[in-house]
Amino acid sequence: MSVFEVPPKSAPADQQYERDFYSWALRQAALLRAGRFTELDITNIAEELETLGRAEFNSLVSALRVLTLHLLKWDHQPEKRSRSWVVSIVVQRGELSELLADNPGLKPRLDEATERAYGRARREAAAETGIDIKLFPQTCPYDLAAITSREIDLR
Question: Which of 14, 16, 75, 86 has the most other CB atoms within 10 Å of its CB?
Fold first, then answer.
């Protein structure tokens, strides 16, 4: 059977969604391609699309968390700066740039994502460095320009 053929219906859509997500997803995609819209499991398709959107937002938060974590460590432990921190910052900046290029709809949520990411990064920085969390600013000290392009150099 081709990916473009509609697989036979083996159970009601909501049951198939719960028991065999893979087969459900393939069937929904084939139904869409075939234009058989009335047979679609609209409720669960909508839920899955929302989940995909949340996953992209979570990827944004994750990239910002790693970046702000390394910037905090960079600023608070200059004696421990290393090439691996530089590499991590460069890699995460690339990930962030690609994520935003692929998902420009995330740009309006950058402030929210940065705030969420910074809270986690602050806690992680305190745990990783042994520095009292109170010594890290309560709110993110970095604007987007600093996060994405501040020069990081081992010199």
Answer: 16
The pair of three-digit structure tokens given for residue 68, joined into one six-digit string:
């702000």
Q: DSSP H helical segments within the chain, as ranges?
A: 13-19, 21-34, 42-76, 83-102, 110-129, 144-149
Q: Which of 53, 43, 37, 54 is nearest to 17 (CA)?
A: 43
DSSP SS3 for 152: coil
Query: Rounded to whole angstroms, how far apart are CA atoms 153 and 155?
Result: 5
pTM for the full model?
A: 0.80
Quote the CA–CA distance of 136 and 96 in Å, as a whole number.
23
- Degrees, nearest 5: CA angle 69-116-79: 15
- Which tokens is 52 given? 């995909």
